[in-house]
Write a structure and sequence with these properties.
The complex is a heterodimer of chains A (113) and B (113). Chain A has 113 residues and is mainly beta. Chain A is 0% helix and 50% strand. The termini of chain A are far apart. Chain B starts with a strand and ends with a strand. The chains are: A mainly beta (113), B mainly beta (113). The interface between A and B is medium-sized, with 23 and 22 residues.
Amino acid sequence: GDSVTQMEGPVTLSEEAFLTINCTYTATGYPSLFWYVQYPGEGLQLLLKATKADDKGSNKGFEATYRKETTSFHLEKGSVQVSDSAVYFCALIPSNTGNQFYFGTGTSLTVIP
Amino acid sequence: NAGVTQTPKFQVLKTGQSMTLQCAQDMNHNSMYWYRQDPGMGLRLIYYSASEGTTDKGEVPNGYNVSRLNKREFSLRLESAAPSQTSVYFCASSKRLGQLALHFGNGTRLTVT
C-alpha cells in the first residue's frame, strides 16, 4: 500500500548548519508530496508541496525536490535557525484515490544557538 | 482569523467513560478530518467527511464515531474510552476532498487511565 518513510530523529543542529531530512515513499502512479511542520503545542502547517516529478517545492528557505527515479522528497535548508526547531512530517496523497493523506512518523529537529 | 478550533485542549478519562471532541472551522471548507497522533506512528486518519451529510472511515475507526453536524462542525465521540485511545487528536479541514492542503487545529491531548 501507499506509505511514507522518513528518517528517525531526533536531529540536533547548531544554528546556521545545513539540514537534510530524508523522506522516501511507496505509491502507485504519481502521488502529490508534502512537508508539514508542527511547532510545539500547535497543529501541523503546510510547509511546501510538489505535485509532479522534478517539481521543487520551496518556502521559508526550505526546499524539496520530487524525485520519481529514487521515490524521494528530501527536505533541505542551507542555514537553520533556532526558530526552525519543530517536528517535520513528510506526507503524500495517492494519485488514484486522492482522498487520504499518508503521513510519515515525523522527525524532531532542535536547533541550538 | 480562527481557522480550525478544537475543544477541549486537554482531557483525562477513566476507562469506560465517554466523551465528545468538538471541532469547528470558519474557512467555509467542505471536507473535514479527524487524526490521531501517536509517538513513532505519525498521524493516522480516524474518520473523514467529504462534505456536509457524509462521513467515511479512515485507517483506524474502531472505537470512534463521528457526526458532521453542519458545514462548520465535525465531532468525534468515544463511547467507551480505552487506554489504547490515549493520544493527541487533531481535527483538520480542506476546501474539498483531496485538496492539496490540510488546515489543522491545535489538538486535544487525551489520556485514558
